[in-house]
Write a structure and sequence with these properties.
Structural class: alpha/beta
Strand order of the largest sheet: 5-4-3-10-11-13-12
Distance between the termini: 36 Å
Number of helices: 8
Helix content: 25-40%
Strand content: 25-35%
Radius of gyration: 18 Å
Largest sheet: 7 strands, mixed
Order of helices and strands: HHEEHEHEHEEEEEHEHEHEE
Shape: globular
Length: 254
Amino acid sequence: MLRHLVFFKNLLKNFNYFDSIILVILIMFRAEKIYLPFLGRTIYFRKKTKDKETFKEIFNENIYNIKLPIIPNLIVDAGSNIGFASLYFKLKYPDAKIIALEIETENIKMIRKNLKDFKDVEIVQKGLFNKKALFRIEDPYHATNSFVIKEVSPNENYDIESITVDEILISNKTETIDVLKIDIEGAEKDLFEKNYENWLPKVKIIMVETHDRMIPKCSYTVMKTLNEYNFILYTTTEGTLIYYNMSFISLNII
């Protein structure tokens, strides 16, 4: 009972009182489709997946719920899974453009359902990487929230293509990204290992989950690279490192 009360209290940070009650009850009963009348939206889950676990990570453990020193206009959600982080950001920053990157087709279908009818949401089925590349998608843990990419040569069969942060900047005709959220199951090591010199100084806030249990020295690589630039590790939340680029952000307003 106590954990349900805690869940309800945390949901109130993002949802109406009555919508929060509905969420607690229907998630407890493993509903796949939950309509929230005050929000006017339906949230979708799948049975025998990690969907509810992912929802609770974002809306119960509140891994992205910190007061930002800026109002973001452009948020990149790399490793969007079924769209719950993008949903969180869109509820909190309704005027922001969200770019949701996800590699797996069934997850993409769920993102389209969970983010349906939101304005300024772009859903891209590509993997964030440090160069142009082709990948096979693998599921080593037999879960729906930990798909990984394996680079293959052009003459091999592949599932998806890469996208780079530089390409995102160019396609959106912008000089900066306000928030770059990264949860890409170990590929963050490659992202921060090379070819970051142009885009990294242009990101104001980075929220990154590292996966040393999957790829050794992920955390070391990410932190070493960010320490080479004008970033500070502002805080951590349940395994997510939150960095501020001090070229854009003043500690006086935090």
